[in-house]
Amino acid sequence: YLMHPNSVATHALIKRDVESALRRHEPRIRLTMVTVEAGADPAELSIQIAYQHVRDGRADNLVFPFYLTK
């Protein structure tokens, strides 16, 4: 997604790919929510991931900054 516009369409593509990758490659969690929003900088996105640990049901989350430029 490097050099893509910080648009709703790009956010939707990133959300789809993050959800797909986590469901396919991370069996230790149950995904509950992924949101992608524009950050403070025009080239920055904030990817928020909410999930439950399969082993004990504990809820957790992660916020990952992602930059659309180098």
Brief digest:
With 70 residues, the chain is α+β, with helices and mostly antiparallel strands. The protein has one helix spanning 8-25; strands spanning 29-38, 44-53, 59-67. It has a 3-stranded antiparallel beta sheet with strand order 1-2-3, covered by helices on one side.
List how many beta strands DSSP finds: 3
Structural class: alpha+beta
Mean pLDDT metric: 95
Instruction: Describe the global form.
Output: elongated
Strands of the widest sheet, in order across it, are 1-2-3
Radius of gyration based on Cα positions? 13 Å
Distance between the termini: 11 Å
Oligomerization state:
single chain
The level of helicity is: 25-40%
- Give the low-confidence spans: none
Order of helices and strands: HEEE
Report strand %: 35-45%
**Mind describing the biggest β-sheet?**
3 strands, antiparallel
Q: How many H/I helices?
A: 1
